[in-house]
Amino acid sequence: MDPFKQMADWRKNMDHFFGEPFWNEFENIVKPTIPQITIYQFDHELTCIASIPGLTDLNKIDIFVDYATLELKGAIDLPNTGGTVVKDEILQGVFEREVTLPFPVRKDKVHATYQNGLLIIQLHRLISDESSRSKVNIQLQDGD
């Protein structure tokens, strides 16, 4: 009897009984998302801090900003010392993290720095014009 098949069957039954996304709610408890992120909100600014230990090549992290979404892609790779792992608590591996921001931000005013294992991203609120209404000019066309 295959224990992994039994586990998959058990999960399927739990999803069926409690509703489709039941198990997904526990996935972050079992496997927390990486990188861990803290966001501070100010009147017209956000400061996002992501924990990314051991980063030596800044080109291995991609930051995307789209309206009210921040997306981080990259990898956390800790150096392998060659020894046997006794305790393994630092989350690592390839990640793709998308975070919904509390307000739309400007794409042209994003500042990111990396220091002491922390990626710090400063974002500025997108403040649109009071009125987005614009007058449309009408051209007279000759009736041929």
Automatic annotation (TrEMBL):
InterPro entries: A-crystallin/Hsp20_dom (IPR002068), HSP20-like_chaperone (IPR008978)
Cleaved signal peptide residues: none
Domain SHSP: from-to ranges: 28-141
SUPFAM superfamilies in the cross-refs: HSP20-like chaperones
Listed Pfam families: HSP20 (PF00011)
Highest taxon, organism lineage: Bacteria
Family: Belongs to the small heat shock protein (HSP20) family.
Protein name: Hsp20/alpha crystallin family protein
Organism annotation: Lentibacillus cibarius
